[in-house]
Structure formats: C-alpha cells, structure tokens
Specification:
Blueprint (H helix, E strand, L loop, with lengths): L2 H6 L4 H15 L2 H16 L2 H11 L10
Amino acid sequence: MPRQYRDRYRAPRRYRYMKENLNRAVSGELGDCMDLEVTHHVHTGLTEDHREAAQAFTGKREPRFRGR
C-alpha cells in the first residue's frame, strides 16, 4: 500500500494506545497493564496536540489539533 494511503487511513495514536491498553487489560497481568498505561500516557503527553490542548486551556480558547 502506498504511503499516502497508509498514513491517511492510519488510526490516531491515542486510539491505537487505547485499543492496546484494553486488549492488554483483558488478558494481561495488572502490573503489566499499569506499566503499559503509564508508558502510553507519557508518550501521548509529549505530542504537539497535547501542548496545544494545554495552551488552549490556559488561553481559554478552542484547541486546533493537527494530529501530531
């Protein structure tokens, strides 16, 4: 599949992380699930969209997300 199509239809990172967390919760150990949750939380917090959300919140405006 060409990259332009693969990137276009790729699920946002937050949804991939949520799905992985839920799947792990069904079959994994609690400690492993919590470790994965923390890892995903940290990775999500390092995105441009997270910074934009924080800036929009403090600036009392609507966020302008770009999927990054």
